[in-house]
Write a structure and sequence with these properties.
The chain has 299 residues and is α+β, with helices and mostly antiparallel strands. The chain is 35% helix and 13% strand. It is globular, with a radius of gyration of 24 Å. Bound molecules: zinc ion.
């Protein structure tokens, strides 16, 4: 091999290697690794065998559907129809990038979440004390949620239906709440209410503190889950929230956990596809949000 050919082969191998690294480290579609190994063969003067050519024709591993994307397809079948070339294929023909490939800090995973970041945190149902910075569900891909539930206050509001709920005395049917029927969320909340009504010993917790409210998260630039109409706050006088007990704490500070919500109530909500804000390190124990994908990803 001449010196020049050697250099070319070395460069080609290096670039093929870095292409493979990219393909392995993210779920982005990358074609960098697929054509260049051929160049290595020709640079080295070898003839590719028919078997090698067949291997070239098989799909590269980076086209495999990431687990999170397949969970989204199962949990939101009316909207997420497939996955192709690194993108969620939506029922209206649009696409949403699954993984933007960026390395993000903890706060960026919340403020600027792609679909993949929603699965970056643990929702641990084996313990009642959240681990440091495990906030599964606080990451929401806004593009996806706006596509499903509505991209403005008016759009979300126009879909809401009434769900029979509890009044201030805990009487079932004494009040109703507005909730989105999208993805079956209102039906799931109805099922929660029916089960809670059979647990009158906890009725002092049931009054709604609010469902739909189009707004940004306190002190942040992202939309609150309440904007999408698939979230309810309850808890009466027994609400705890990380910022109330740890005033002025930053998002990465070590904080003290505090909860007064009975676990039996939490388990009813989780059974019907809702996650509980009390399982977040940055706890919000009044908060229940319809997020079946987080439960499916954290069995
Ligand atoms: Zn809430």
């Amino acid at each position: 091999m001449t010196k020049k050919a050697y250099i070319i082969a070395a460069v080609v191998m290096l670039s093929a290697f870095s292409g493979m690294m990219i393909a392995n480290s993210s779920c982005n579609s990358s074609t960098a690794g697929s054509s260049e190994p051929v160049a290595i063969d020709s640079a080295a003067g070898e003839v590719a065998s028919p078997a090698a050519a067949e291997e070239e024709a098989t799909p590269s591993p980076d086209n495999a559907i990431p687990e999170g994307a397949s969970i989204l397809m199962k949990c939101y079948p009316d909207f997420v129809k497939g996955y192709k070339d690194g993108k969620l294929q939506m029922s209206d023909g649009s696409t949403i990038v699954y993984d933007d490939g960026r390395q993000k800090s903890f706060v960026q995973k919340l403020d600027d979440s792609d679909a993949e970041d929603m699965f970056a945190f643990k929702y641990d149902r084996s313990s009642w004390t959240p681990e440091y910075l495990q906030d599964a569900g606080r990451s929401r891909c806004e593009q996806l949620f706006k596509k499903m539930y509505g991209s403005s206050s008016q759009q979300v509001a126009s879909k809401l239906v009434n769900v029979k709920w509890f009044d201030a005395n805990g009487n079932y049917g004494g009040a109703s709440v507005k909730f989105t029927p999208v993805n079956g969320a209102a039906d799931h909340l109805k099922a929660v209410a029916a089960e809670l009504s059979k647990m009158p010993q906890f009725k002092k917790y049931y009054k709604s503190e609010g469902t739909f409210y189009w707004r940004k998260v306190r002190g942040a630039n992202r939309l609150s889950a309440h904007s999408y109409g698939m979230t309810i706050d309850i808890g009466g006088n027994y609400k705890t929230y990380w910022l109330w007990s740890n005033g002025g704490a930053s998002e990465t500070a070590k904080i003290r956990y505090e909860n007064k919500m009975p676990h039996e109530i939490v388990e009813v909500f989780e059974k019907h596809g809702f996650i509980w804000g009390g399982r977040w390190y940055h706890y919000d124990t009044m908060h229940f949000e319809y997020r079946p994908e987080i439960l499916m990803a954290n069995p």
